[in-house]
């Protein structure tokens, strides 16, 4: 059980969203860390719907490409990267979530900067700009620092970076100045010391163009060919989705059938009813279907967006890229009559801008003439730029066009941001990063009195809309909604669309009122949310009972620290409990709270390995349900052997979990204990389920009865003083053996042709025989190399022997069984019978 000192996240209920950069294994480790420090984590698999965001204090994700992101921002709930957890732990307080936002608009959010010998004014400006755009500042050089701002590579801090070979980029202040002026993060390589390109190359030297990944599949609104779907073992992005193709797409029956086939293969289906759709694919920002879908907050995109989902099988918002959203039949006010030419943009970036100009209502010309009004250029060096300036044309970068399109308003070309061209940078590298503004779209294209038309109470974004819905629709939602489980955070009594059960649900003890800081989302989002509430005012009276439900209904969700929620939970109000509008739903909320309140304290921390009922693909849901049931019995399932009080296994295993648990003196039980507890629905005595495996005991030459006693006597110091090396590519992996050695107090390192030290505080190996005291401890006389008898591994033996002999010690090359037998029996063994020699070498590959 977490101690009082380690309950940093005690008031936090967190949702961990898996993605390509945050796989399930990493999410599990993160959830364990949060549990150890009092948090309540819930893991959501890629493609699965996020449960009602109002239940959470934080969402953890490496990307903003998940369907509930916009709703989360509207609810002012922070979305943070996994690094936020480690930073909070290191500072022993919940750090500002803004500096750990995955939002690409905070383009400095991966940067930790320190400053060298630069003027104080420049230093203050850089620090302020970096922090404002999501980055962090460090006063000294550390492992966390990513960039050192300096004027020379000979400064004190620069020497520290070079001496310690730190992964820190030393850049001129000009890089930050250019990034902040543009509002975009450009490549730092032209600004890097000791030989920065911006100071070395002349103005006429061609500028190297780097790849722009943001424009892949996003350079046109009308793609020519249906893509080949991305093959993946992950859940399809269309699983369980209903997709409507609008008639204004103008596609033939053959293409429509092909699209339908792809969608159905991914678990989706076609629909002709916009009210039941999860996605609407259309060409124009007009028509009943477009306006209805937009007001219901259904994803509205064009064919290019649909094709991207098919290609990459990863959700992205159709607002993320300008040409993934339907176009308007009429252009941006003020763009009619404009004649725009392009310079220095090539490839996908040029095609993208040509299509964007057409979508804005202007004319894109291949050549530049005096009748042109604007020149959009990627840098300031070209014949077109010279001619445009002589003719008095507006010379701007692509940000002017993107901002005008996103805001649907002609932006002033006089804004310095649009006329800034960094040296040695082609701005085509950062084209396509501007997002559409939903508030602008609503005001211009689908604004209306939402309360007049029947709408769904629960939207595809888990967002509450207090408006009238047809009774049959409401019944369907209630029938499809999953029953509440105490293993999933419940909270605000809101009715939401059926959410797919995440693959992993992890909740610890309750009794926490969240008081963590809110998200620092923009004032615009907050004002827009408030404005929408005023529009819905006529319907609020129809939902008077809903608003009085236990937990209440508040736009965007509720915090655990909300006063009325705390009162409802602790029952401090003398007033009688309000009657819920929907009896079954009210009972569901109250019953969930009762179950959480009655959840028993943790009686044991159980490490489980080899439990066959959880082994195999497709058993994740059963594993999650069983672990929740065990927690309700007082058994906390843990992944870290150090935290375990008991370990359950079907037999004596050589898994890392099992072997490490033995080192910590965990009580050993059979996995029958788990099955029996689940069946009886009560915590049984683990003493009644001892692990018995006589065959393995005879094979490995130890008795289970004595292992726990030996471990308690060893106190994780059995291998203290031992230095054990591993050959590369050892079967089972170096990390596994390293964890076993360290769990028993030793040092484990990779052998790559030389002897290295795990701890810098220890003295370096020396040829001086008197550099280390002599004694009888094996660590003072012998060094060990774990290896196999393969030709590949034997090539490292001569070098190991020579390196050890050079420091006046004895080399011992042994099989991994030597380490495993000691770790499992918790008693040291002589290396003689495990030693490898050249006559044992088998010509084989591991």
Q: How are the strands of the biggest sheet laid out side by side?
A: 4-3-1-2-17
How would you characterize the largest beta sheet? 5 strands, mixed
Give the strand content. Answer: 5-15%
Number of strands: 25
Question: What percentage of residues falls in helices of 4 or more residues?
Answer: 25-40%
Helix/strand structural class: alpha/beta
Mean pLDDT: 80
Biased composition (Acidic residues): 576-588, 766-775
Protein name: BRCT domain-containing protein
GO biological process, one term: DNA double-strand break attachment to nuclear envelope
Region (Disordered): 453-529, 554-601, 761-780
Tag the structure with descriptive keywords.
846 residues; BRCT_dom; alpha/beta; BRCT domain-containing protein; 25 strands; Rossmann fold; single chain; BRCT_dom_sf; five-stranded mixed sheet; four-stranded parallel sheet
Please tell me about this protein's structure.
This protein has 846 residues and is α/β, with parallel strands linked by helices. It has 6 domains: 112-210, BRCT domain (Rossmann fold); 222-324, Rossmann fold, CATH 3.40.50.10190; 339-434, BRCT domain (Rossmann fold, 3-Layer(aba) Sandwich), CATH 3.40.50; 452-591, no CATH class; 604-713, 3-Layer(aba) Sandwich (Rossmann fold), CATH 3.40.50; 718-840, BRCT domain (Rossmann fold). The strands form 6 sheets. It has a 5-stranded mixed beta sheet. α11 crosses α13 and α22 (656-663) crosses α30. It is globular. The protein starts with 12 loop residues before the first strand and ends in a 21-residue tail after the last helix. Residues 576-588, 766-775 have a biased composition (Acidic residues). This is BRCT domain-containing protein. One of its GO terms (cellular component) is nucleus. Residues 4-102, 102-193, 233-323, 335-418, 606-691 form the BRCT domain. Residues 471-483 have a biased composition (Basic and acidic residues).
